[in-house]
Every structure is written in structure tokens, then in C-alpha cells.
Design a protein that fits this description.
heterodimer, A: Rossmann fold, 6-stranded mixed β-sheet, 5-stranded antiparallel β-sheet, 20% helix, B: 233 residues, mainly alpha, MetI-like fold, 10 helices, 78% helix
């Protein structure tokens, strides 16, 4: 699958000019509010007609301003999950979910109703009407409704932004399952570092309607940019759940040779999980500390020391094959005489890794 | 209580009024929905002129509307002659003419009510339907129309009530022929023109009040049911 977008669009004094392509997995359109993310995703969906440009999906030309081609949204077969759920108030939850089935025609079977209901855990909601659902439940139904229309591509415009932290935590696992268990590529608009860190394979950073950077999630999130503030810089690590301690609700995750303990993670053994470790949550010690509450003390080697900014430096470490970044003050750097190649211990509080 | 017993002629007037009003309401409904949709959503030159024409019967004296209908839809009128020749539908001095007059008089009320509720529809829901594969016609039938239903019901009841009370345009266009064009209002008027007709006028007035009240209550119930279905999500 491939989506190629190359468009220019003017909205008053603001303009969006973007060219990118995406393939498998989750592509995040990442940027602050007002960076043009929503305009861009609406253009991909066909809800907004770009001033000029081309959009091609799997060789199927959807927009080509030179040849006056514009495929309307209902013929694109792109699912769209909006920031607000936009459920149909006059239909029951079940009929909301099956709405798209009326129109998908004979184009493939698509996922079965039972499978989606199971994936999203909405079995008990089917007989209700949207007015009686919580925000998180509505958004799950909206995701299911989009999936059941058997889309070729799923567009999501900040699907969690309207929800509180608890609801976000409730839905994120479903989005991960969606990414891992369906083959549908996803374009995911967000301004949240933690969502992008958890979900995205590829990240496209938008700034004032232009693409300012793009690359894999780990690279984009390890550097400060318009979308990633200095405070949020960190590393993204893919690990595998190795063991769980039910008594203390601690999960052991292995990434390379490093073992990382995180609290309260609802995932089965053998499952892949993504951790985002903010640089400011990583401490350094030149000798192995004792009597410390932090559960993660990882032997590491310094591979790079970044330039100083505002009295702080970012230090890249190799922890058993995994790169993590630690932010320390220049004072600490000089006191500990840190230099490239020096063996150190990286200390991460488990509590800081609460997903 | 003998004075409360209705004569055959009075029954005829009541039945005729109900038939005229129902036909006027149902026949104008599709046109009202179409015009309301155009006025609510359309962006074209001459929209305010269309809006003006639709609302004219509301502000013109009913006699003027009746007279215009007589000129246009009368036996020799351009539209009346055309319809009589090709479809066999004759309006002048028939109950169909009374229904036409009532429909025209009630049209602005119906359009207004439907238009307001179309304008209240959240268009983002229509966008969502489009992304799920629904083309414009299906979006209209499965999302817009159900959401507009309370407005349509209100408009229909309003139009029905207006048609029941319509007098000036009807009597000008199709006169006051017992059994053919003499509606409730015309019959009451006739009673007031003859000596000793007060009792008859009073009987029909009571009936008129009962019918109007019933229409209002039915509309309340229907609107309540419809509103429950489309309660904001």
C-alpha cells in the first residue's frame, strides 16, 4: 500500500503545502494546533478540495488538479475517525456500527461485525443510543464504525484529544491492537508526544502548513522541534513483555539486553510494547548506586554528548544495544567528568514510565 | 340538546374541510422539503427572490392570492388550461381548487419550519456519513431527513391548521359551493349571512376548535417522539 500526497492549499492568509508518502503501519501527522494537520487530513479524506496537487493511493488517482480529477469522499473508501465521535444520534449503537455496510458494496468482505465488536470491547453497548454513552465509549464506537465500512486507509484526527487522561488510557490499547491486528494503514493526526511515541511508525512534523521534518518515531522524538518541546525530548524503545509481578503490579520488559521495569501495564507476556523514556527522567551515576528506590539501573556506555543549551546537555547512551538519552546539567557533566566511551549507570524511576 | 346535532350539510362541510386540508398538506410536502433544502443550503443568484415568492402568500391579502390563482389556474388560465388538457386535473370550482388554494396559503409556513430545522442539522454528521461511503442522496435520506423529521412534522401540522382555517383565497378562487368547495370556514361564513344561522355557526365553530386542538396535541406527541430519537449525541 502507498499513499502519495502532494498538495497546496490556501485558507485565507494561511497555506498548507505538503508532499509526503506513507506506506504500512501508522503515519503520524504531528504538530501544534494551527499547523495545518487537520486541513491536510481533510484533504486526504476528500472533505476539502485542495487548491492544487495530486493524491494517489495504491496507484488510484484521487486528486489531480492538472487533469481536473477529484474523487468525492464517499468513493474513496477511507475511514475517518474525527476528534468528536460524530455518531448518528437517531440510530442505535448497533446501527451506527453497521452504517457503512450499506455502501461498501461487493468490494471485499471486510472485518466481521463480531470481530470488531470484540476488538473494541463494545458488546454491551450495542442496544444503546449514542446519547447515553460516555466520551470514551462514543469514540470506540466511532472507530468501530469506520473499520466496519471496510476502509482501505484509516484517517484519525486527534481521536483522543477530547477525552480526559483516564479515557485516553482506556482507548490507547485498542488503537495498538488495531495497528497490530489489522492490516489497515493509518494516518494519525496528533499533537501529543506520548500518543505518537506509542503508536506511530513514521512521523511527519508539520509547522505553519509545511513539513519541517519526517522520519521514524524514535528519531523525531529524540530531537527538540516545533512539535516536540525540549522538555519532552526522549527515546522510544520497542520491547517485549518478559514477566509480570502480580503482587506489585510490575511488568518486566526486555529491549536488547536491557531489562526495564514499568508499573501497572496491562499486556500479556510476549507482547511487544513501546516505551517512551523522556531524557529528563534519566539520571546518570558513575558507580552503581545502592539503596535507591529507582528500579531500573542499567549499565551503559556514553556514545555521544550533545551541545549545551540552557545549562543542560543531552547524553546518548548505549544500554545493551538500546539507545537512550539522558539530560543532565553541564555542572553534572563536569563534576562526573563525563566523556564519550565512559561506562556509567543510567537510572530510570519506574514510576516515570507509567504508560 | 337538539341544537348540537349536526345536519347532513354540516357533516359534508366538515368532511370536505378535512379532505381538502389533508390533500393540501400531503401534496405540498415534497415541494416544501425541496424548497426548504434549496433555501437552507443553496448558494445561487436569486435566492432572495425565491424566498420572497415563497413567502408572498403570507403577506399578501388572501383575496389577492385567490385572484391570482383564478387567473393562473382558472379554466382559461395558462396553467389551468394546460393541466386540464394534458392531465385532466381541473381546479376551478372544484374541491381540488380549494386544496390548491390552501396549499399555497400554507406553503410558507411549512417551508419555514422545515428550513429552520435543516439549518440546525450538524453538517459534520453528513461529512461522517460521506466518509463511510454514503453518496449525497443516501446522506440526505439516512442522515439529514431523519434529523429534520421534527421540523417536518411541525411544518405539516402548521400547514394543516392553516388549511383548515383558510377562507379568503379559497372563496375567491373556487367560490362557496355546498358539497364541492364549501369548507368549514365558508360554511360558518354562510351561516352568519342568513337569519337564524347562529346555532349552525356555533356548532361548526365548536367542531373547528376541537379539530384545531386535536391537531396541536397530535403534533406535540409526534414532535416529542421525534425529538427523543434525535436527542443530541
Amino acid at each position: 500500500m502507498s499513499l502519495v500526497v502532494e498538495i497546496r492549499h490556501r485558507l485565507g492568509t494561511f497555506s498548507v503545502e505538503a508532499a509526503f508518502s506513507s506506506d504500512r503501519g501508522v503515519t503520524a501527522l504531528f504538530g501544534r494546533s494551527g499547523s495545518g494537520k487537520t486541513s491536510l487530513i481533510n484533504i486526504i479524506a476528500g472533505l476539502l478540495r485542495p487548491g492544487s496537487g495530486r493524491i494517489v493511493f495504491n496507484g488510484d488517482v484521487l486528486v489531480d488538479s492538472d487533469n481536473r480529477i477529484f474523487v468525492p469522499p464517499h468513493r474513496r473508501r477511507f475511514g475517518y475517525v474525527f476528534q468528536e465521535a460524530r455518531l448518528f444520534p437517531h440510530l442505535s449503537v448497533r446501527r451506527n456500527l453497521t452504517y457503512g455496510r450499506w455502501f461498501k458494496g461487493k468490494a471485499g468482505d471486510g472485518p466481521s461485525f463480531d470481530r470488531i465488536v470484540d476488538l473494541l470491547g463494545v458488546e454491551t453497548l450495542l442496544g444503546r443510543v449514542p446519547a447515553n454513552l460516555s466520551g470514551g465509549e462514543k469514540q470506540r464506537i466511532a472507530i468501530g464504525r469506520a473499520l466496519l465500512s471496510n476502509p482501505r486507509l484509516l484517517l484519525m484526527d486527534e481521536p483522543l484529544a477530547a477525552l480526559d487522561e483516564e479515557r485516553k488510557a482506556e482507548i490507547l490499547p485498542y488503537l495498538e491492537r488495531l495497528r497490530d491486528e489489522t492490516k489497515i494503514p493509518i494516518v494519525y493526526v496528533s499533537h501529543s508526544v506520548s500518543e505518537v511515541a506509542r503508536l506511530a511508525n513514521k512521523v511527519i512534523v508539520l509547522e505553519h502548513g509545511r513539513i519541517s521534518a519526517s522520519g521514524d518515531a524514535a528519531t523525531i522524538l529524540s530531537l527538540p522541534s516545533s512539535a516536540v518541546s525540549r522538555r519532552e525530548v526522549g527515546t522510544v524503545i520497542d520491547g517485549i513483555v518478559e514477566a509480570t509481578d502480580a503482587e506489585h503490579q510490575i511488568t518486566l520488559i526486555r529491549a536488547g539486553n536491557a531489562e526495564i521495569r514499568v508499573p501497572h501495564l496491562d499486556a500479556g507476556i510476549g507482547k511487544t510494547v513501546r516505551l517512551q523514556i523522556a531524557a529528563r527522567d534519566v539520571m546518570l551515576a558513575t558507580s552503581k548506586p545502592e539503596g535507591l528506590s529507582a528500579l531500573n539501573i542499567l549499565p551503559a556506555t556514553i556514545i555521544e554528548i550533545g551541545g549545551a543549551a540552557q545549562g543542560m546537555v543531552d547524553i546518548r547512551l548505549d544500554c545493551g544495544g538500546v539507545t537512550i538519552v539522558s539530560r543532565v546539567t553541564t555542572l553534572s557533566r563536569d563534576m562526573l567528568k563525563l566523556h564519550v566511551g565512559k561506562p556509567v549507570h543510567a537510572i530510570i524511576k519506574s514510576v516515570a514510565l507509567d504508560l | 340538546m337538539d341544537w348540537l346535532v349536526l345536519s347532513d350539510a354540516e357533516w359534508t362541510a366538515i368532511r370536505l374541510s378535512l379532505r381538502v386540508s389533508l390533500v393540501a398538506m400531503l401534496a405540498s410536502l415534497p415541494f416544501a422539503i425541496a424548497v426548504a433544502m434549496i433555501l437552507a443550503r443553496g448558494r445561487f443568484w436569486g435566492k432572495s427572490i425565491l424566498n420572497g415568492i415563497v413567502h408572498l402568500p403570507l403577506v399578501m391579502p388572501p383575496v389577492v392570492t385567490g385572484f391570482l390563482l383564478l387567473i393562473l389556474f382558472g379554466k382559461r388560465g395558462p396553467i389551468g388550461a394546460f393541466l386540464a388538457e394534458y392531465t385532466g386535473v381541473v381546479f376551478s370550482f372544484r374541491w381540488t381548487g380549494a386544496a390548491l388554494a390552501c396549499a399555497v396559503m400554507a406553503f410558507p409556513l411549512m417551508v419555514r419550519s422545515i428550513r429552520l430545522s435543516i439549518e440546525a442539522v450538524d453538517r459534520r454528521l453528513e461529512q461522517a456519513a460521506a466518509t463511510l461511503g454514503a453518496g449525497p442522496v443516501w446522506v440526505f435520506l439516512t442522515v439529514t431527513l431523519p434529523l429534520v423529521l421534527p421540523g417536518i412534522i411541525a411544518g405539516m401540522i402548521l400547514a394543516f391548521a392553516k388549511a383548515m382555517g383558510e377562507f379568503g383565497a379559497t372563496i375567491t378562487f373556487v367560490s362557496n359551493i355546498p358539497g364541492e368547495t364549501q369548507t368549514l370556514s365558508s360554511a360558518i361564513y354562510t351561516f352568519t349571512q342568513v337569519p337564524g344561522g347562529d346555532a349552525g355557526a356555533f356548532r361548526l365553530t365548536l367542531i373547528s376548535i376541537v379539530i384545531s386542538m386535536a391537531a396541536l396535541m397530535v403534533s406535540e406527541v409526534l414532535a416529542h417522539m421525534a425529538a427523543k430519537r434525535v436527542d443530541a449525541a
